[in-house]
Automatic annotation (TrEMBL):
Membership in a protein family: Belongs to the RLP family.
InterPro entries, alphabetized: Kinase-like_dom_sf (IPR011009), Leu-rich_rpt (IPR001611), Leu-rich_rpt_4 (IPR025875), LRR_dom_sf (IPR032675), Plant_LRR-RLKs (IPR050647), Prot_kinase_dom (IPR000719), Protein_kinase_ATP_BS (IPR017441), Tyr_kinase_AS (IPR008266)
UniProt domain Protein kinase: residue ranges: 247-523
List of residues binding ATP: 276
GO CC terms, sorted: membrane
Keyword field contains Aminoacyl-tRNA synthetase: no
Protein name per its UniProtKB record: Protein kinase domain-containing protein
Keywords of the record: ATP-binding, Glycoprotein, Leucine-rich repeat, Membrane, Nucleotide-binding, Receptor, Repeat, Transmembrane, Transmembrane helix
Length: 554
């Protein structure tokens, strides 16, 4: 929240900057262009405004630029054409105007371009159109030229009326009243015709300028609907398609990195969650095969994928509706509406997530790496049982989305260090994210928060507190007073094991489940002194010393 500080420009060795999904506003500081080693700059989904700094062209090593879903205005700087290493450029969902610079088509390494939903105008440069699909430019109603766009007006169209209506000197000299009458009639007809065209154009522009959310989920004249479970009759399929077409902004119940989620109530009162994927996936056959595979995955702690709907312009996933919000909402509430959460509820959620991940890692063939475990991706039912959503989507988007580079998936604060540095996604990436989730459940701190004066993330802060003998300070005061201290200790050490810096030092999710499933966490086999919760409250810096390996099953 707040402005991006100019001091970011002092980080001269910075390679990647991920500040997306925050509430930053104001201009992008010009000083940021000093970071010449920057390869990835991700500022999407904020409230940044002003113009895009032309000085970004100084970032000659930049490969990925994500500026979508902000409030940028002005024109696209032509200097971006100097960024020869740029592979992905996403400026969609802003208020950019003017023409698309022809220099964009000269970026030889650019493979992903998204300029959709701005206010761009004029002819799309030929070399840009030849390299990128027209869907990279949709939502700019004043663009013209090329496949998928109206023809641009010819200059000759503007002089036609003048030629038709300009009398010659010879005819003028005759002074024929009949000739003047003809000219007057012709002028009136032409004027009326032009006025009619102007009114039609004005009506269309007013209609286009209004927010029209259903158009974003417009299935066109067709739309293929596939329902996995139980089948569906022709009539109910038609009804579902009709209701999907009528979804509006008021039906939105969430929005994340993969897309917007709508709540849909069917005729039989069944409630569904419809996820509209944000990026167009052009390989329909490959997409359908992957989604149908995900539809076969059944586990009580995974959100059920019930079907999908495809059209040339949109891809929708149909999920069961989980009614009790997200874990993020449970822990942090809305504003001051933060209620106590009992340890039994938190432990049950942790165990449910662990079981779901263990199933994805050890019981699916091939195994599924989630890559984006976070409190916002854990849905809760009416019994506060956890259900993991969005599993399998990272792989689908990496494989079949031509508008998104195969970049690091995940949410800031949950991403394993080796994965953030460009390493391969393994099951240990999910284990790390789960460890951060456990720390959230214990501390009720967000993953980006450290101690009161620590400018570090939750995982690093928790490790530091434990190593300095202050591990008890990681646990929320309410839990220290109300929950069994032995259980809190054990779960804390499991969490610390999961967020080990080295992947090989992290347990498997199967080991984590075995530990969390133990009756009373099976502490009789662990040689640790018992500490009363009242003692902890008096001096939270006191914590028994024992090893993480003593907690996890061998």
């Amino acid at each position: 929240m707040g402005n991006l500080v100019p001091e970011l420009g002092n980080l001269l060795k910075l390679h990647r900057l991920f500040l997306h999904y925050n509430n930053f506003f104001g201009d992008v500081p010009q000083e940021l262009t000093n970071c010449k080693r920057m390869r990835t700059l991700s500022l999407h989904h904020n409230n940044l405004s002003g113009s895009i700094p032309p000085g970004l062209s100084n970032l000659t090593s930049l490969q990925v630029l994500y500026f979508q879903n902000n409030n940028f205005s002005g024109s696209i700087p032509r200097t971006l054409g100097n960024m020869k290493n740029l592979r992905t450029l996403d400026l969609s969902y802003n208020f950019l105007s003017g023409q698309i610079p022809s220099e964009t088509g000269k970026l030889i390494n650019l493979v992903n371009l998204n300029l959709s939903y701005n206010q761009l105008s004029g002819q799309v440069p030929t070399d840009v159109l030849s390299k990128f699909h027209s869907e990279s430019f949709i939502g700019n109603i004043q663009l013209c030229g090329g496949v998928g766009f109206p023809a641009c007006a010819s200059p000759s169209d503007n002089i036609f009326a003048r030629k038709a209506g300009a009398p010659s000197k010879e005819s003028s000299s005759k002074g024929s009243s009949h000739h003047l009458s003809t000219l007057a009639i012709a002028g009136i007809c032409i004027g009326a015709f032009l006025l009619f065209k102007a009114l039609c154009l004005l009506t269309l522009l007013r209609r286009w300028s209004k927010p029209h959310i259903p158009k974003e989920i417009d299935l066109g004249s067709g739309g293929k609907l596939v329902v996995f479970q139980g089948g569906t009759s022709t009539s109910s399929s038609r009804d579902l398609l009709r209701r999907i077409r009528k979804l509006e902004r008021k039906d939105v119940i969430g929005e994340g990195g993969y897309g917007v989620v709508y709540k849909l109530i069917q005729k039989n009162a069944q409630v569904l969650a419809i996820k509209k994927l944000k990026h167009t996936i052009e390989s329909v056959r490959g997409f359908e095969a992957e989604v149908e595979t995900l539809g076969t995955i059944k586990h009580r702690n995974l959100v059920k994928l019930l079907g999908y709907c495809t059209s040339p312009t949109v891809k929708l996933l149909i999920y069961e509706f989980v009614s009790n919000g997200t874990l993020e909402q449970l822990l942090y509430g809305q504003g001051s509406d933060i209620k106590p959460v009992e340890w039994s509820v938190r432990h049950g959620i942790a165990l449910g997530v662990a079981r779901g991940l263990s199933y994805l890692h050890h019981d699916c063939d091939p195994r599924i790496i989630h890559r984006d475990i976070s409190s916002s991706n854990i849905l809760l039912d009416e019994n506060s049982e956890a259900h993991i959503t969005d599993f399998g989507l990272a792989k689908i988007l990496d494989t079949y989305d031509t508008h998104v580079t195969a970049s690091v998936a995940g949410t800031f604060g949950y991403i394993a260090p080796e994965y953030a540095e460009g390493g391969k996604a393994t099951d240990k990436v999910d284990v790390y994210s789960f460890g951060v989730l456990l720390l959230e459940l214990l501390s009720r701190k967000r993953p980006s928060e450290g101690g009161d004066s620590e400018d570090i993330g939750l995982a690093a802060w928790a490790r530091r507190q434990h190593e300095s003998g202050k591990g008890a300070t990681v646990i929320e005061k309410y839990l220290r007073l109300t929950a069994p201290w032995e259980e809190l200790q054990t779960v804390l050490l499991v969490a610390l094991s999961c967020v080990s810096h080295k992947p090989d030092d992290r347990p498997s999710m199967k080991q984590v489940v075995e530990c969390l499933e133990m009756d009373d966490l099976h502490l009789s086999s662990i040689a640790v002194p018992i500490m009363e919760s009242t003692d902890v409250e008096k001096d939270a810096s006191v914590v028994p010393i024992f090893e993480v390996k003593d907690v996890l099953p061998q």
